Every structure is written in C-alpha cells, then in structure tokens.
Amino acid sequence: MEALGLLFHGFAVLLTWKTLVLMMVGLVLGIFVGVLPGLGGPNGVAILLPLTFTMDPTSAIVMLSCIYWGALFGGAITSILFNIPGEAWSVATTFDGYPMAQQGRAAEALTAAFTSSFVGSLVAVLLITFLAPMISSFALKFGPPEFFAVYLLTFCSFVGLGREAKHKTVISMSLGLLLAGVGMDTVSGNLRMTFGSAELLRGINFLVAVIGLFGISEILLTMEERLALRGHAASISLRVVLGVWKDLPKYWMTLLRSSFIGCWLGITPGGAIAASFMGYNLAKRFAKDPESFGKGRIEGVFAPETAAHASGTSALLPMLALGIPGSGTAAILLGGLMVWGLNPGPLLFVEHKDFVWGLIASMYLGNVVGLVLVLTTVPIFASILRVPFAAVAPMIVVSCAIGAYAIQNAMFDIWLMLGFGVVGYVFKKIGIPLAPFTLALVLGNRAEDAFRLSMIGSGGNLKVFWSNGLVGSITTLAIVLLFWPVTDGLLGRVGLTQRTRTTPQ
Amino acid sequence: MRIPVKAVGAATALLLSTPAFAGWEPTKPVEIVVAAGAGGASDQMARMMQAAIQKNNLMKQPMVVSLKGGASGAEALMYMKSSEGDPNKVLIAYSLIYMLPLSAKIPFNWRELTPVSVIALDQFVLWDNSAGPKTVKEFIDAAKAASSPFKMGGTGSKREDHVLTVFLEQKTGAKFSYLPYKSGGEAATQLVGNHTEANVNNPSENLEVWRAGQVRPLCVFDKERISYTNKVTDTQSWADIPTCKEEGVDVQYLMLRAMFLPGKVTPEQQAFYVELFHKVTQTAEYKDYMEKQALKPIFLTGKDMVQFLEEDDAINKSLMTEAGFVAK
N or C: which end of chain A has fewer CB within 10 A? Predict the structure, then answer.
C-alpha cells in the first residue's frame, strides 16, 4: 500500500530528538492555552506562529499542530471542571461532564474526555491516511443547498431529539438566531441591528457569549446556592483511568457512531460544532434510558468528544486538499503554511509529500504523546476542585474576562460577556436550555447565508433542496428528525422499528 | 467603461523627498491590522511582511498580525479610526476603504488616516471551470443561451467582485446570478465543484486550482497582460492570459494594496514606516510573493500616493454609483 509506505516515511522524518522536543513543547503550550477559556486554539496558534518562522516547515507545522492538539485536549478540562467550554465544540461536553465533576467524578470525566478525543482523532487520521483523495472530492459536492441541509439537520435533530420541552428549545434557538443576525450581512452587504454602534459592527462573538452564558452564570448560581465548588472528593489514581478504559468496549457503538458522524461532518466547514451536538443527541436517542443523560452519564462525555475530535481532525483534510479551513485554528495554520511557501490545494499532496506525510505522521504521534501527557496531569487539574470556592471564583472570572477580551481585543466584549452571564443565569432559573441558543448563535449566520445563496442560485425555488440525491436525503432526514416523536411512532406502528419507546420525549 | 490606473509603469521606488531616517522608532510591538479573515489575501500579505521584517532584521520591535475582519473588514477601519495618534498600528488596506463607506454607510473616510505607501496592485481574472467554455466569447454566448442565469461566485456583496459582475453584464448583455461567498477560497472551490459557472477571483485565490487543472482563466481585467512569464501550469504562465479588452470585453479594474497609519501621528513616525515598507519591497520574500501571487509591483508614497488615492477613490465611487450600490 502506497499510503503506508509514505506514512512510514513520514514517521522517519519525524523521529528525531529535535522534533520530539518541539512536539512536547507544543503540546504543553497548547494545553495551557486550552485551559484558559477563550484563549483557545486559534489565539494560541496565532501568538506562537512567528516563533516558527525560522524553523523548517516540517518542524514548524509539527509544533503548531501539537499546540492545536494540546488546545483540543485542554478545552475539555474547563468544560468539565467549571462548565466553561473553551471551544465551540466543547459545549456538548459540559452537559454530562460538569454534572460528573459535581458528583466527585471529575477524574473519570476527564479521562473519558481525553480518551474519546484520542479515539475520535485516531479514526479521523486513519481516514485521512487511506481515503484522502476520495474524501476531498466528496467535499467538492457541497454547494450552498448541501451546506444548508446539513445545518438544517443539526437544528432539527436538536428540536426533535432534545430532552427539553420543544417550545423552550425553539424559543432559545430563535433568540440565538436573532442575535446571530447582528452585524454585517454578507449576502446583501448591509449592516443589521447595529443601531449605529461601532462595537456591534463585529457582530456577537460566539465564544464571548458562551463564556458568559456558561461560565459567569455558573459562578452566579454557585454563589446563590452555596459558596463551594461541588465535587471535592475527586479520587485520582491509575485505577480510575484503567476503570474507564475497561468500560470503554461497552460503549463501542457510541464511539463508532460519533466517529462516523464526526468524520462525515468534519469535511464540511464548521462541522465540528454540529458534529459534537449531533453525536450527543444521537447517543441519547439510542440509549435505553435517555432521561439519565445530562445528569452525569459517562456516555454523554464520550459521544460529543469523539465526534468533535473526529471532525476537528478530519477538518484538516479540506484545508490541506482544498485550501478551505474548517475551523478558526485551521485558518491560522493555513496562513502559516503559506508563509513557508506551501500552498494548500489539490497539488500539495503531490508536490510536498514530505511535508504532508510528516504532518499526518505527527497527528498520530502528537495524539499519543498528548494523551499520555494529559492523563498524567489529570490529578493536577482535578485538584483545582479542592481549592476553596472563594479563591477559585475570582480566578475563573478573571480568566473568563481575559478570554473574552483576547478573542477580538475589545473591552466591549467583557461587558457583553457579563451581560450574557446574567442572561444565562435567568435562563437556567426559568428552565430555558442554553445549548440551542449557542448552537443557533454559531450556525445561524452560516445557515442563513447558505439558504439565501441557494435561493439566489435557484431563482427562489425550494425544490433545490431535493435537487440531487445527496441534498435530498439530508433534507429529508432533517425533517424526519424534526418530527421524530411523531415519525418514530409512525414507523413503529408499521413495524419498521423494533424498539419499544421507554419514555415520552 | 475604462478605469485608468495611473503610475503603474513606474514600478520601481518613487521615494521622493522623504526626510532621512529621523530617529523615531517603535518602542513596542507593531500591529499589522488586517481587514479580512484568516488565510485571505490580506492576511497572507501581512504574514509575508511579518516574516520579511523578522528574517531581515528590519525593525527592532516584533511585528504582530491582528485580524480584524469582522463586518467584512469594517471592524478594521473603525479600529484604525479610533486609534488616532497611535504609531504602533499599520493597516493593510485595499479598495474596501472606498467601497464600505458607500455601500454600508460606515462612518469612515481614508483621509482621516495617515497614508504610508501603496505597495502593490491586485489583478482580477475571469475564471470558469476547466470543463466549461474555452474562450470569453464562447463563455458569454453560453451565458446568454442558458435557460437560467449563469452563477457567478465572488467575495462579499457590493464589492469589487460584485461591481465587476455588474459591468460584465452591462458590457455583454449576458445575465448572471451573483453569489456572495465569505472568501475567495470558498468561491474557488465552489467553481471547482461546479456549483457556480464562473468567478472573478484574484490570481492568488485561484492559483492552486488553476495549477491542478480544475479551472481556466479566460481573461484579465486590466489594460495590459500580467508581466510574469514563468510557467505556472505545465503549459501556461500568467502572461499567457489575454486581457478582457483583447477578447472584446472592455472592463478594467485593479485593486490597491496600501499601508496606512492612524490619524494624527508625527511626520517622523510616518517617515519611519515609509522607510520600513520601502525596505520590505526590496526583500527577496516580497519579490517572491509578488510573482507568486501575480501582483502588480508599485511603490508610491507622499504626494504621489495621495493623488493616486484621490483618483482611485473617484473611480470607485463612480463605479459604485453606476452599479447602484451606494446606500441612500
């Protein structure tokens, strides 16, 4: 197999002391930026990019991609310990990860998150190794109608499969869609809902909202209820790690399903976010006891993390093969590649074999080394929970503020973050779910653009969403999922599904 | 319709009466403000400069790239406007400085900033899928004969690509549906995937898919051919692309790439950056970059630059007005 030969060549390029040291340095830096909410992968990579200008391209990209891995691993830490997602796709990890931490199972949750990240990335890297040419041609099939269908699928699966009352999900989602409209509308080139304010021109940054909605509101709730972080008795040992691993095979179906969803969505830009939510919702849908999700179920950590990382990793493929970055971090890496004179595009795989296979090999190595590194440091992170709340809370608030500021270097964003903190608090009090809101805020713009571009292209004909097999099946699936409680019942009646439904959705 | 772009012939430095290095130097890291997203043409150019300055030790302080692409670049403009008197921020500007205030009523005027230098001019090329028509004439005929309008991909709404599409329609009588994507890279892959029939991307945005034989350049929107004669694909160089005028469609447009400081900086500070970017244009990194991206070399400062900007502004304004893109 040609791919294997090239891969081993890639490993040979990498296995020098210098590269390995760079790899470790990159990972540690990455975990560090990942732990600070908001700082995250894109900023970390951007700050460190100039460091690599004097290196040769292979060493440089190895170091940068390790920062990326580190940040991905690190993002899960704050989601689980403090309910503050560091990246968009970590939001779904908080649903069960944070309750687990509250129950004193932080170490277990962290181990689950890291392990499933590892599994997801591994599946995606395997896919890249063996199917790269095929996948990049699949990505080219996506025009505006196909993109819209995927976003629609994500929204619909949320409404149809969600545990919360449907009307509350829809309210929350609509508010998110509304706020996503603030700023420049790229289709018409006009400003919307900025009310003459220069600060609102940028629109509402998703991460600022997330840090406020989840992080600040959590601090507010904790202050109200009791002045302590819950989950003191986080027992940490090799035993916990091995225990999680021993249970891993039981969840093979969840892991497989999430990996598949992740890889599939990863090659469409913005897919990682959709993938994590969809992975979570489907795991819940197919569980025997869906109502136990959201209360600290380990599968609720496995599912989104596997999907997010499978898709985060496979998102590098369209970046390399087509020059379209699938995430903010991938976009910065793209800029980096160009500085070294490597132009991502169809010919990169042909003309710069050394580089491409070095990068792919570094994905394998970086992932393994990263897993070992984060697992050995789990005790340190989990012990944060034992620090008194009075000491940790100000640090969290400050780190949230730094994170919110760093995204766009704007003081206004800190106020916005605090505002969202209050909104999040109120939402939690009146039982409106936050996740549909955040999902709509991230994907709202893209979904709208994709829809309007489809309409311009088809002259306003909705049939365009059924104009070929690919878009037609995604759209139909979306509608089936939207009315899932109804369709599931109908399918059951005609004997298409064997499963008996346990609880009303 | 004719868009004369002045002073292009004088590609070499036109450093006139800039005072000798007056002694001012940045005392903290310098921010290059990019009015576009990561990976776009401005970002690439900023990173090239960052690398050129660092590798050749042109400045003691480090240079950092600051992406302010929000609101189609309006964020960067407002940021520069509000940084009055701060000599540690340089904007890498393009024609959005004329167009955005007109189309979206952004309260911004480039005359409030301090001009440093014009460093390049960017070309626009009409591209179609390599499976599509082979010449401009065949392309226009096919567009006219099509039952539904040809889809033209581009970046943003009421901007360069959109203006060119409108004028292409006016000149040829063919109708296009203009699809505004978020970036030139996206417009490129959408053309490769046959979701659009054509685009008017800059050379750099379609370079890789051209080299891979997935798209075909039909003509360049300039009064003369691109000067670079080294082979880019197996058979063609940039200079082999005919001008649109040669092909019977007289539409021309060039886009500036220029550096600006915020308003109210001292002449010494301005002089430092004029000198700095002049040095940058002498580096191997810059020259490589220009050829690779098929940019048109130019270097203007001082009065020449202001005169160039005024003329360019007038041209853009009349184009925008004619296309009906000026907000009421």
Answer: N
Task: Say if CB A435 and CB A284 are below 8 A apart.
Answer: no
Q: Looking at mean pLDDT, say which of A20-29, A275-284, B152-161 comes out highest.
A: B152-161
* Tokens of residue A377, six digits: 């440091």
**pTM of this prediction exceeds 0.90:** no
Q: Are the beta carbons of B38 and A408 separated by less than 8 Å? A: no
Q: Is residue A478 part of a domain?
A: no
pLDDT digits (tens, 9 = 90+) for A223-232: 887 655 554 4
**Residue among A225, A236, A95, A203 nearest A444 (CA):** A203
Residue A430 domain-assigned? yes
How would DSSP label each residue in A408-445?
HT-THHHHHHHHHHHHHHHHHHHT--SHHHHHHHHHHH
For residue A496, the SS3 value is: coil
Residue-wise pLDDT for A349-395, tens only, equals 777 777 888 888 888 888 888 888 888 877 777 677 677 777 878 88
Q: Which residue of A has its CA nearest to B38?
A: A331
Instruction: Quote the number of domains for chain A.
Output: 1
ipTM of this model? 0.85
Asked whether residue B316 carries a pLDDT value surpassing 90, the answer given is yes
Q: What is the domain class of B30-122+254-323 according to CATH?
A: alpha beta
Give the distance from residue A345's alpha carbon to the nearest chain B alpha carbon, in angstroms: 5
Q: Note whether B30-122+254-323 and B125-240 share their fold.
A: yes
Query: Which of the 8 DSSP states describes residue A50?
Result: G
Q: What are phi and psi of A37, to 5 degrees?
A: -60, 140
Q: Is the pLDDT of residue A195 over 50?
A: yes
C-alpha distances out from residue A194 to A182, B46, B104, B105, Å:
6, 29, 12, 12
b vs e for A399-426, b when ≥16 Cβ sit within 10 Å of the residue's Cβ? Answer: bbbebbbbbbebebbbebbbebbebbbe
Identity of the residue in B74, B75, B193 whose CB atom sits nearest the CB atom of A143: B193
DSSP B312-328: HHHHHHHHHHHHT-S--
Proportion of chain A above pLDDT 90, given as a percent:
16
Write the secondary structure of B14-45 as one string of H (helix), E (strand) and C (coil).
CCCCCCCCCCCCCCCCEEEEECCCCCCHHHHH
Asked if A456 and B207 come within 8 Å (Cβ–Cβ), the reply is: no
> Which B residues 145-204 touch A at CB under 8 Å?
148, 151, 156-159, 162, 177-182, 185-186, 188-190, 192-193, 195
Q: Where are the alpha helices (DSSP H) in A315-388?
A: 316-322, 328-339, 348-351, 353-382
3-state secondary structure of A363: helix
Phi, psi of B178 (to 5 degrees): -85, 125
Class of domain B125-240: alpha beta
Question: What is the pLDDT of chain B when averaged over all its residues?
Answer: 90
Chain A CB contacts of B179 under 8 Å are: 144, 453, 456-457
